[in-house]
Amino acid sequence: MITDLFNTLNNPSKVSANLLQDSDVEVLDVAGQSIIKISVPQASRKQKPVYLGSTPFNRNTFRRLHEGDRACDDETVKRMLAEQVEDDRDSKLLTGFGWSDIDKQSLSVYRQMLKDAKPGHPFLDQDDFGLLKKLHGWRKDRQTGEEGLTLAGLLMFGTWDAIQEAAPHYFVDYQERPEAKTELRWVDRLVPDGTWSGNLFDFYRIVYRKLTNPDTLKVPFRLKSGQRRDDTPIHEAIREALVNTLVHADFSGRVSVLVVKRPDMLGFRNPGDMRIPLDRAVKGGESDCRNRIMHQMFLMIGLGERAGSGIPKIFSGWNWRHWRRPALYEIDEPPQTLLELRMLELMPEEIQQQLADRFGESYRTLPRLERLILATAATEQVVSHSRISEITTDHSHDITLALQSLVKQSMFETNGRGRGAVYHLPGAGIPTPEQVFGVPIGADQNEIVDISASDISYSGDKAAYSGDKQIYSGDKQPYSGDKSFAVDNSVAYSGDSELATDHRDEFGRLISPALQAPAIHDLENLSPDFYARLKSVAEPSATSKRLDPETMRTIILQLCDGQYVTRSCLAELLKRTADTLRHQYLSTMIDDKSLTLAFPQTPNDKRQAYITTSSLQEVQR
After folding, report:
1. Residue 374: what pLDDT?
2. Is the distance from CB of 10 to CB of 18 less than 8 angstroms?
3. Structure pTM?
4. Burial category of 420 from C-beta neighbours within 10 Å (exposed 0-12, middle 13-18, buried 19 and up)
5. What's the pLDDT band for 587 if we cut at 50, 70, 90?
6. Which sign, positive or negative, has the C-alpha torsion 63, 591, 460, 519?
7. What average pLDDT does the chain have?
8. pLDDT tops 50 at residue 318
9. Checking DSSP bridges between strand 336-342 and strand 595-597, what pairing results, if any?
10. How far is CA 364 from CA 380, 398, 411, 511, in A?
11. How many Cβ atoms from other residues are within 10 Å of residue 112's Cβ?
12. What beta strand segments (E) does 429-550 contain?
């Protein structure tokens, strides 16, 4: 079977590229049966698109989206082919654009920054037009003799009117939001509105000042040679994150560049996916910049990093402050890359004091990793192996040993086995569906829990994600819904059924001592007015078979704000199947911490309920 696999993969008439090596295929012994495990590595930019047959078009190209492989439309394939051929996307000559399309004030400020960074640099001897040519913002094609502005020159120093003509999808957006919530409300915003140039250089200068405003960015100064330095590793990380966002953006994409500042985090989004795999980008040492001329322009004034060291510098800067590990991830449709820098202490002093009071000297003598794990459990109620992998750079084996050690010392209790296990502090009282809802009459465990092979492991954490993906908005992408959406919520319960009938609030929501917020598990029990409010929120999904993902996520967050809602109730309100919601939305929103599970120790239980993480944190305060 393995031989047949490789014979097919190495046949170019069957598959365009073989991504597998011998080490990617293993034979495992599971309960006396031989199982073939195949680990498929991510294709490089030069290998994409990977397709079946002789042409990548006509839906022969596939890409992995969540748990399934989805056929790519021709537009996506063309974008992959462009990325494959073009090492840099900003060297393109722009026909019909000239010197008059450059904002002279922007170029003058750049000259001064170059002078400050590199006094006496020979480029400073040039006039402004000569400086632009030296920076490759203006070039001559040696083969055709044509010369003019490059895309890099225009986007970096151009006027807003000219940029709109040359790059219709170009848009840059900065938002400062007053609260650690996902709602789209801001107290400060910067977009191209005719009051400033709208180019990337000015966007960087203005936004960096806003991000590092000392009134809102609370970081300690550091000493160098006994002298105070206000420029800390945090400032370096922010500079690198902002430059990275701009020079790696695909300005032909439909998504805007977006920078968000909240009290608890900084978020950066650029259109286009990563050109190298995420794990290798975090490790460093590789560089494949999409806009190399613009990158060089920033490097000339001391901004940005060479040779793939930028992402590691961001991670090390955040580690210097002992904040949560940055989250770098991609969204496939529309293609975009997101970086989230959370300004949250890994081990808040009040949590450490609580644990010290509880465990005494035993806690104080624990290794740092074990103290970090306990502090995370005290903050988040439960932890898993993959969750700890998100917030620390410790080796996976060391995390396993630390978890086992805490269990042996009776500082932790566990549910589940292996990497899929979840852990909590002793006596934490992790709720179960049976405690909250009782047991459906006539049901057995296999009916209650979805035990499909793809979902055996804990779905609440994936190392590639953390943070709040919903800080991003405004991206439209057709979504194909489901024709069958009928859900039966009228299941009779036994056991603790008095909870479901006697303990309800004025809206008809279940009030359970096991949960920290009301729960909706039966729409028929809701008051008519409250039910109508929920239906109004869900109406865009309920009345449309196609809905862009951002809108669907926003609706789910609104429905789950301040209350737990079961998967079946969400499915009925949104007119989607429960499985579709879980695979396409809910699992991802749990992964990125937008939502929190009611029953984290049994994530695949069909009675699972969801609440927004931000509203749960408000309740816990």
Report:
1. 93
2. yes
3. 0.60
4. middle
5. confident
6. negative
7. 82
8. yes
9. unpaired
10. 21, 19, 13, 38
11. 11
12. 439-440, 493-494, 519-520
> How far, rounded to the nearest angstrom, does the alpha carbon of residue 74 sit from its chain's CA centroid?
26
Q: Tell me how far apart the alpha carbons of residues 377 and 382 are, in angstroms, rounded to a whole number.
A: 5
R_g of the chain, CA atoms, integer Å:
27
Determine the Cα angle at 61 with ends 55 and 63, to 5°.
Answer: 165
**Phi and psi torsions of 36, nearest 5°:** -90, 120
**Cis omega (within 30 of 0) for bond into 277:** no
Residue 562 φ/ψ region, left for φ over 0, alpha for ψ in the -120 to 50 degree band, beta for the rest: left
- Determine how β-strand 519-520 pairs with β-strand 564-566: parallel
Q: How far apart are CA 301 and CA 295, in angstroms?
A: 10
3-state SS string for 572-619: HHHCCCHHHHHHHHHHHHHHCCCEEECCCCCCCECCCEEEEHHHHHHH
What is the reported pLDDT for 491? Answer: 44
The pLDDT, as a whole number, for residue 283 is 81
Report whether pLDDT(155) > 50.
yes
Strand order in the sheet with 595-597: 519-520, 564-566, 609-612, 595-597
- Whole-angstrom distance, CA of residue 222 vs CA of residue 196: 35
> Of the ranges 120-129, 208-217, 305-314, 581-590, which is most confident?
120-129
Q: Which helix (H) or strand (E) holds 269?
A: strand 265-271
What secondary structure does DSSP assign to 435-446, as a single string? HHH-EETT--HH
- Structure tokens of 250? 């695909």
The H-or-E segment that residue 263 falls in is: none
Query: Torsions phi, psi of 596, nearest 5?
Result: -125, 140
- C-alpha distances in angstroms, 514 versus 19, 430, 496, 518, 531? 48, 8, 12, 10, 24
At 248, is the pLDDT very low, low, confident or very high (cuts 50, 70, 90)? very high
Q: What is the pLDDT of residue 87?
A: 64
Distances in whole angstroms, Cα of residue 193 to Cα of each of 164, 261, 541? 12, 20, 32
- Within 13 Å, how many C-alpha atoms sit on residue 160's CB side? 12
**Are the C-beta atoms of residues 368 and 345 closer than 8 Å to each other?**
no
**Residue 396 tokens, joined:** 């996976």
